[in-house]
Amino acid sequence: EKIRIEIISLCLTESRIASDETIQQLFVECRLYNFLAEETPLSLPKPTSGQRIHYNYSNVIHVDKANNRARREYLKFMLLKPDLHTDSLRFTVVSDPPEHEQDLECEDIGFAYVSLREILQKQRDIIEQDIDVFDSQDDSAVIGKLKVTVEALHVLRAVYEECKDD
To answer: In degrees rounded to 5, what are phi and psi of residue 10?
Structure first.
C-alpha cells in the first residue's frame, strides 16, 4: 500500500549547468502531482563532468485506503484518464545557493520524469535506473542522468483492480 522512491545519484553532462559558476550545490525534489513534495535532506557539491554525486535518499508515499484515500483516489483517476503531466513522478534538480549568498533564490535547473502508468503497462518497477534530466530552460536538452528506484507496481495493480470493480 505504498510507493517507494529512492534518489540514488546524479551525474551531469557537458552543458550550461556544468559550466555555470553560480551553480555549486544541488539537491533533488520529488513530487507526485500536487500531493507531495519530498526533497533530499542534503544539497551536495555539483559534480564535475563524468563524476556522480550520491544522495542515497529513500522515501515512501503511503496510499492505503484507511489513511490516504485522497492519494489513492488520485491514482485511480490517473489510471483512468491518461494525461502526460499527471501520471508521472517529477524529479526536480535544484541549485541551492551557497551559505554566504543566502539572498539568492533556489533555482530549478532540470527535470526528470517517471511514468507510473508505464510501470503498470510494462508490469515492472524501476530499479536503479538512469533517467534523463532535461534542462529547465530547454526541455529538449539533456543535462544529466538521475539514478532512481521507483517501486509502485504492487499498489498500482491493486488500485487498477479497484477501478475495474467500481
So the answer is: -140, 135
Cβ neighbours of 143 (radius 10 Å): 23
Instruction: Say whether pLDDT at 72 is over 70.
Output: yes
Residue 77 main-chain phi, psi, to 5 deg? -55, -45
Cell of 32: 507526485
The 10s digit of each residue's pLDDT in 120-133 is 999 999 999 999 99
Block residue for cell numbers 526536480: 92
CB 3 within 8 A of CB 126: no
Is the pLDDT at 15 greater than 70? The verdict is yes
Q: Is the pLDDT of residue 84 over 70?
A: no
- The distance of Cα 61 from the centroid of its chain, to the nearest Å, equals 12
CATH class of 2-165: mainly beta
Helical ranges in 14-152 per DSSP H: 16-19, 69-80, 116-122
**What is the pTM (predicted TM-score) of this model?**
0.90
Cα dihedral 125, 130, 136, 137 sign: negative
